[in-house]
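Posting here for the record, re: magnesium ion.
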Amino acid sequence: MTAVIEVSEVNKRFRIHHERSKSLKERIIHPGQGSYSDVQALRDVNFSVGTQETVGIIGRNGSGKSTLLKCICGVLKPTSGQILIRGTLAGLLELGAGFQHELSGRDNVYLSGSMLGLSTKTIDRLFDSIVEFSELEKFIDTEVKFYSSGMYLRLAFSVAVNVDPDILVIDEILAVGDERFATKCIDRIGQFQKEGRTILLVSHSADMIRGLCHRAVVLDQGQVIADGPTGDSIRVFRERMLADAPKPIEEAASAGSATIEAVTTPSGRFNILSGQRLQLNVDLVAHHGFDGHFMMEMFSTEGKLVTRTDPMMNSVSFSPGPHRITVDLPEVPLTDGDYDINLGLVGPDGYEVLAWREQVAKLQVTYNGRGAGWMAMPIEVSVN
Ligand SMILES: Nc1ncnc2c1ncn2[C@@H]1O[C@H](COP(=O)(O)OP(=O)(O)OP(=O)(O)O)[C@@H](O)[C@H]1O
Ligand SMILES: [Mg+2]
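Prediction output follows.
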């Protein structure tokens, strides 16, 4: 597999000048000698993306994801290191990067097309399909500064996917669109994948990364801390988030409130027949007393979320020390396949993760019927 994006030893430092913090007198005596501080947004970043690969980038706020994409798209120059791109690249960067606000949607389509190396003639030919995909016919002659963030996204996405790039780079952009348009974008990304193009995608949504990417890179404080199969990288990401989450003052430790030590079944096996009962024993050690909710997810081998329990259900309460949670699924109506199980504890609000383990077990389900889909839905039929 040839690499189409190669990032080698890339560092990016931003210098922030604190000119304004000097008094007027200081500024007159020492002109131009303001204090400054450096932000190291990227540190020795190395990774490559091959043809036909879809790679996700995850990391918390400020970890350097957007900076990395901007360097790859050539909008920013790395302080040191090299980036090699083979093929044409279209990027959807953070909102605000890309379009000229004083120009109309129409002019921006031409401008971004020409920046991607397309001739006016080619853009003329693509123009209608770009506008059609964006559904902005009525607003195409309006200056983009009057666009809502959703409209801006629509136009940016439409340009990027219609200019026929070899590589598509997307920064978190699907987050601002409405759900229908986001689905349309994801379908289009799926089509891109089928056509064998390369996609690099930043998202805060682990589900989206899992659903679209074969591989994911985790950035933390500008460094790559994981690069591998999506499930593994998401596990590293979540574990890192847990380890470093801010701790409430009154509670000894909210993040990492408990350590999940083992997940087992009474039979010792993780294979069942469709429709059978599944019991899990979750052994954990609570580091202090707390209340919360037990949560469980199942993912298909393609990384699609099959089910996630309601984070406000299944209340649990712990005193400090070892505990066993017994989980009972009376009937698992899944069809044939392997399902990855993730589970953990969230706080009383259903948001804060208190303990989490990704891919703690792989459940194998055998289905002997002829129904199809993920579920063998129990139904009852009667004739009167
Ligand atoms: N133009 C800039 N000038 C100075 N510092 C910057 C600039 N752009 C980014 N930074 C800093 O670089 C670091 C990485 O920022 P970046 O925007 O790449 O993070 P991110 O991972 O995309 O975050 P988010 O999830 O919030 O989008 C941050 O500390 C940020 O403050
Ligand atoms: Mg960002």
